[in-house]
Amino acid sequence: xxxxxxxxxxxxxxxxxxxxxxxxxxxxxxxxxxxxxxxxxxxxxxxxxxxxxxxxxxxxxxxxxxxxxxxxxxxxxxxxxxxxxxxxxxxxxxxxxxxxxxxxxxxxxxxxxxxxxxxxxxxxxxxxxxxxxxxxxxxxxxxxxxxxxxxxxxxxxxxxxxxxxxxxxxxxxxxxxxxxxxxxxxxxxxxxxxxxxxxxxxxxxxxxxxxxxxxxxxxxxxxxxxxxxxxxxxxxxxxxxxxxxxxxxxxxxxxxxxxxxxxxxxxxxxxxxxxxxxxxxxxxxxxx
Length: 288
What we know:
Distance between the termini: 46 Å
Largest sheet: none
Order of helices and strands: HHHHHHHHHHHH
Low-confidence stretches: 1-5, 284-288
Shape: globular
Mean pLDDT: 83
Strand content: under 5%
Number of strands: 0
Number of helices: 12
Structural class: mainly alpha
């Protein structure tokens, strides 16, 4: 008996081309939706201020002007805001990363009394609205003489980023085989040597993902930066850009130019760590 094999309609060449075309159209629309605001912001930053103030201004500028960038860099404290944001992030990222890495290793590889309660407490800490802690944090920073200080703001950012980073790194560690550590112990490695020579190198993609999250959180944080930093010399980028929105006027040229310059470090960072970032997020999302 012979069986006539017929290919399914959805596996025909025409169906494959149609599915791929639909996928490309969907991805194109999605990219336009995501990148559209950035394109508008960039075009607005190149539009002369006189055209922005006129009625019925078009999206495309009549002429390209970089006056907003020149005024932003030379006539405003933008570079001071940029420096402060970098300083806060450079302090917050390694501090939170060290704490989160140590906590993740302890929670993933060691059994101790109160382990379950500690994991639940870390998760519950993410549910607290940031505004509820403003008053208590301000009092603590005042006692430590860290109000209006980039170090104090960095400590606050690190404290709020550590719980999520801990869970992310723990999920990554849970996916790593314990046999490598057991083999190292058989070879005579101490617990510290196992952490330093085995766990930390394998944990690097997860640490890159966690560090990227901490950096973005610190770079974009507004509430605490607005509350705890009062002087021009200590304000960060989000607060500094907000000052371009006045009571009777919005400086769209300076605001959009500052937004373009503020997003460049984030994009550059993603381009540098994109491979390790994707690996870290993918491995931390599942338990192998």
